[in-house]
Specification:
heterodimer; A: 479 residues; alpha/beta; TIM Barrel; 2 domains; eight-stranded parallel beta sheet; four-stranded mixed beta sheet; 17 helices; 44% helix; 14% strand; B: 209 residues; Methyltransferase, Methionine Synthase (B12-binding Domains), Chain A, domain 1; Rossmann fold; five-stranded parallel beta sheet; 9 helices; 11% strand; binds CO-5-methoxybenzimidazolylcobamide
Chain lengths: 479, 209
């Protein structure tokens, strides 16, 4: 059977759901957007105009859950990479928006650049479990004073043929984004149908919604763009100091986003997600690679199952400052439980230092962690097909199975995972090879991919159109 | 009873006892500046030191600060009569376009704990608002926080506004993407990577302490 794991019992899920409803209906949620407050008031929420807090009754949650789709496909520019949600296996998101990157040539830690993002996308294109691209760095070489989110979105669409997930910050960005997607897909209807672009929506913990981003997404919802509500409370500072109550508040935040977008445009695809952290009590900083973050985000993934909604959870994360043992330990320990519990998409490939530092080699290392976790999740196939009793009878006591046809067949099958990075040489071979290590091998792999051609490029004329739309966007959106 | 008891109560987070302890010292005729410098602020300097060394956790440090504030309230009416002045006024906020506030809150709470008067403008603060608040309050220091690369230019604007107008207010900056190099580039008076560092910075920049 496939391996499973539960973070919460049925009773505990019910209890958390009730707690979240109580938070929504009695404490309420603050919305900085007038439009959002109007949508909520029109649909039965009690809104206090001065505090901007909406009390959301249980019926609105029930109503929202009835219109939110339980399944949809996250399309990709290359349909081979379309990703059905919910998924039968766990896919991965390239972790987003690091401020810094390790320079692949010099090893220096510096501000991240567009070239880092393009290199990352080329590598990510090759990962079998890599599903969703979040523009993974904040490109310091893009004009910061006159910045718009259309830029990293277009760079991603040009350099990756997988599903792109970014955020937009201003309503005025929407028409340019839709125009760009239409240029790629041929029509606005295809944009609605194919869903090759989705957005991440960070609520502001505790219990607050941004104004501009909210207005932007109310616009985007009209184009059936999937929305990933993505609360990031830190238990102990922006969230309460028990995992249980932190989960209840984060769940309430996600439900409040679900309610808003379902009331505004019923049927808006929602990816139920969380990237919760904990507070580093020594400094106040945000910790991602802790055992507790795995428990919180894993439990919230189960709440998504409870509501029958596809999900994305933060995982495969680390607080290490450099590539190395801490990064691998935290990422592996944080990924496996989420995979076992059946999370659809884990967000966290390629970065360390709490998503602030991109390391190209880490993308390859995380890929191997993901593949190993998948092998464990796939479990033990106890079926007739794998029942080799006849071999046992034939070989009998003593002897070996090396020459059995079944061994010949299985040695390269999914039954046995073959690592690319973990060393399985003898000591002598390993020494002979110059003591290779995981990151060294990952580095070779990165070099190989970067030296190769770009896979699935966009036709030149479409790139030209995107560049033209970008020029218009830069002009129209300048501050 | 002694000023040492006040010092100890703060270091042990005994917020319910502090008022009586400070009142007792006042009644005993102890010099106000002695209570303030060696009791209240002295204790917070010790707390700040322990926090910097990783011996105290944030909630403990904040509890100590709250204890100190309760004690300060007792002597505040008397401060005007003595030569002792609080450490200076700091305007703080997260810059325009940026809503991250935990780092800014931490810095504000630590500065307050260290005896500075804090005016917190919140998040998404326009450069002009920093300028106006600095001018109105004759603030010694403006501290700005940014967590997004795209909002860092708003720091430069605020620095420029205040410097161009010739205000004596010092400008300091911080936040995860901010660096000393950036502070130098925009001619800010200082940068710190964390909250205890911000307290050190404030102390070094505000004269007469
Ligand atoms: C002298 O004055 C001084 C001195 C020192 C100062 C100072 C001022 N200010 C701070 N310090 C210093 O002292 C503090 C204590 O030591 C420190 O403060 P910090 O603020 O650095 O540290 C805090 C104590 C803890 N740190 C934090 O709370 C930030 C943690 C991370 C994960 C983070 C969080 C939690 C949030 N976020 Co946001 N967020 C990230 C962060 C990634 C990371 N690991 O840092 C970052 C900063 N976010 C980012 C982004 C892109 C965004 N976030 C957004 C939203 C949010 C939440 C609302 C969900 C939430 C904030 C909640 C809140 N109430 O503050 C969106 C923008 C909203 C907006 N308009 O501001 C959004 C656009 C959406 C998104 N992708 O998440 C990235 C920025 C990339 C960039 N370089 O521009 C980011 C690095 C995450 C990432 N990898 O994508 C020091 O820097």
């Amino acid at each position: 059977m496939k391996l499973g794991l539960n973070f919460l019992s049925e009773d505990e899920k019910q209890r958390i759901h009730k707690d979240s409803i109580k938070i929504l209906s009695e404490v309420g949620v603050k919305f900085m957007s007038d439009k959002a407050l109007k949508v909520l008031a029109d649909n039965g929420a009690k809104v206090d105009k001065d505090s901007r807090v909406a009390l959301i009754p249980e019926e609105m949650v029930t109503q929202a859950l009835s219109t939110a789709p339980n399944a949809f496909v996250l399309g990709a520019r290359n349909p081979e990479f379309d990703f059905q949600m919910p998924s039968s296996y766990t896919g991965y998101t390239l972790d987003g928006a690091a401020t810094f990157a390790i320079d692949f040539e010099t090893g220096e830690r510096r501000n991240a650049l567009t070239s880092d993002m393009i290199a990352s996308l080329k590598i990510f294109e090759e990962l079998p479990l890599g599903t969703v691209v979040w523009p993974n760095v904040h490109c310091d070489d893009m004009d910061q004073g006159n910045y718009n989110e259309v830029r990293p979105s277009f760079v991603s669409l040009i350099n990756s043929s997988k599903h792109i997930q970014n955020e937009l910050h201003r309503p005025e960005e929407v028409p340019f984004m839709i125009e760009g997607l239409s240029a790629i897909l041929g029509s606005e209807d295809a944009v609605k149908e194919r869903k090759i672009f989705s957005v991440c929506y960070c609520t502001i913990p505790p219990l607050t919604h941004d104004g501009e981003m909210c207005d932007t997404y109310l616009e985007l919802a009209k184009f059936h763009v999937p929305i990933l509500p993505y609360p990031m409370p830190a238990a102990g500072s922006t969230g309460p100091a028990s995992l249980y109550s932190d989960i209840a508040v984060a769940n309430a935040e996600s439900l409040s986003a679900l309610v808003l977008f379902q009331m505004a445009v019923p049927g808006t695809p929602i990816i139920y997600g969380h990237a919760a952290g904990i507070t580093n009590f020594r400094l106040g900083t945000f910790i991602e690679g802790a055992p507790e973050t795995t428990l919180i985000n894993g439990a919230l993934g189960e709440m998504a199952h409870f509501y029958n909604l596809p999900n994305t959870q933060g995982g495969c994360l680390s607080d290490a400052k450099v590539a190395g043992p801490q990064a691998i330990m935290e990422k592996a320990l944080g990924t496996l439980p989420l995979v076992l519990s059946g999370v659809d998409v884990i967000n966290g490939i390629g970065e360390v230092d709490a998503s602030q530092l991109l390391i190209l080699e880490q993308i390859i290392v995380d890929n191997e962690i993901a593949l190993m976790c998948k092998r464990i999740k796939d479990g033990i196939n106890v079926s007739d097909a794998k029942d080799y009793y006849n071999d046992v009878a034939q070989v009998g006591a003593g002897g070996h199975f090396l020459m059995q046809p079944s061994t010949m067949k299985e040695c390269r099958s999914d039954e046995f995972f073959q690592p690319e990075l973990c060393d399985r040489n003898t000591f002598e071979q390993w020494a002979e090879l110059g003591n290779p290590n995981i990151y060294g091998k990952a580095r070779e792999k990165v070099k190989e991919i970067l030296a190769g051609p770009q896979k699935n490029p966009l036709p030149d004329d479409v790139i030209g159109k995107l560049e033209e739309i970008q020029r218009k966007a830069d002009e129209a959106l300048s501050h | 009873m002694s000023v040492q008891d006040i010092f100890n109560a703060i270091n042990e987070f005994r917020d319910t006892e502090i008022v009586n302890l400070v009142q007792a010292e006042v009644d005993a005729g102890t010099d106000i500046s002695e209570i303030l410098d060696n009791g209240l602020i002295g204790a917070m300097d010790e707390v700040g030191k322990k926090f910097g060394e990783g011996l105290l956790f944030v909630p403990e440090m904040l509890m100590a600060a709250q204890t100190m504030k309760a004690g300060l309230e007792v002597i505040r009416p008397l401060l005007a009569d003595s030569d002792t002045k609080p450490r200076g006024t700091v305007i703080i906020g997260t810059v325009k376009g940026d809503l991250h506030d935990i780092g800014k809150n931490l810095v504000a709470m630590m500065l307050e704990g260290a005896g500075f008067t804090i005016i917190d403008l919140g998040v998404d603060v326009e450069p002009q608002a920093f300028f106006d608040a600095a001018k109105e309050n004759s603030a010694e220091l403006v501290a700005m926080s940014a967590l997004l690369t795209t909002t860092m230019p708003a720091m430069e604007e605020a620095v420029k506004l205040i410097k161009d107008a010739g205000l004596p207010t010092k400008m300091v900056i911080g936040g995860a993407p901010v660096t000393q190099a950036y502070a130098d580039k925009i001619s800010a008076d200082g940068y710190s990577a964390d909250a205890p560092g911000a307290v050190e910075l404030a102390r070094s920049l505000i004269p007469g302490d």
